[in-house]
Amino acid sequence: xxxxxxxxxxxxxxxxxxxxxxxxxxxxWPPAARMTTHLRDRGLDDTPQRGARDGSxxxxxxxxxxxxxxxxxxxVHDLLLDxxxxxxxxxxxxxxxxxxxxxxxxRDPRRWRWTGTRPDPQxxxxxxxxxxxxxxxxxxxxxxxxxxLVADTARDALNRIDRALQLTRLTTAVDVPCACxxxxxxxxxxxxxxxxxxxxxxxxxxxxxAA
Length: 211
Description:
The protein is built from seven helices and four strands. It starts with a helix and ends in a 6-residue tail after the last strand. Helices cover 49% and strands 9% of the residues.
C-alpha cells in the first residue's frame, strides 16, 4: 500500500531532518525574515535573549538552525496536520448510546483533536497511517476520496523530505544487515548528515549500527 509505505518512511526519516536542522552552515542569525515570522507564529520568538547570549546587543550570532530544513519541516508538518484535520472530519465518530459511552469515546486517546496543542509530525503521520491501514478506534472505514487525499499528502511530504535531504543523490548499501534481514542503505547529501535506514522495515540508525 503506497500511502502506508510513504507515511512509514516519513515517520522513520524524520530524525534525519532533525539531525540536519542543526548542521552548521556559517550563516549569521537571523538569516531571513521568515525565520522571525516562524518563531513569532509559534510563540517562540526569543529575539531579546539572542542579543543577550552573544553579548553583542545586535542579535547576531552563528546560525543554530538550517533554514532550508526548517522550512521543509514546517511545510510537511502543516501539510500533515491539514490532512489529518480533513480526514478526521470524515471518519471520526461518536457512538450513539448513553452519556457514559459518549464520554468514554470523547476521552479515547486515539481520537483526533482539532484544538489544544497540535500533535508533532511523527504522531500525525502515525495517526494517518492508522487510518489507511484500518487500525481500530472510533472511526469509520476510510472512503476512497479520503484515501486519495492521504496518499497525495504522504507522497508530497516524502518528496519534500527527499529533496531537503537529497536522499536520492547518494545511496549505497552497507555490509551489515538489519535485524529484520533487510538491506541497510547509507543516505547522504550536500549539507545533510549521512544516515542509515533499513530498506525493508524503515528502521533509522542514528550515528552507528546498534542492536
